[in-house]
Amino acid sequence: MNRRELLTLLAWPLDGGQEDVRRLVATPEGRANYLRGMLRALCTEIGPRPSGSKGYDAGVAIIRREFERSLPEVMVDTLEFRRWVVVGEPLFQVGGRRLETYVADSSPATPEGGIRGVLRKRGEYEVVDPSSGAVLARAGISEFGRAIVSSHSGKDDVPLFNLGRQDAGMLDRAAREKTPVEARARVKWIPGVKTSSVAGTLPGDSKDEIMVVAHADTKYNTPGANDNTASLITMLMLAHAVSGRRPAKTLSFLATAGEELHYLGARHYARTRKERGTLGDIRICVNLDSLTYGPNLQINTTDDALGRTILDIHRDLGIRAEPKVFHRDDTMDSAPFLAAGARTVHLNSRGDDARTLPLWHRPEDRAETIQPEFVESSFLVLRELIERLLRG
Question: Which of 176, 179, 370, 378 has the fewest C-beta atoms lying within 10 Å of its C-beta?
Answer without folding.
Answer: 176
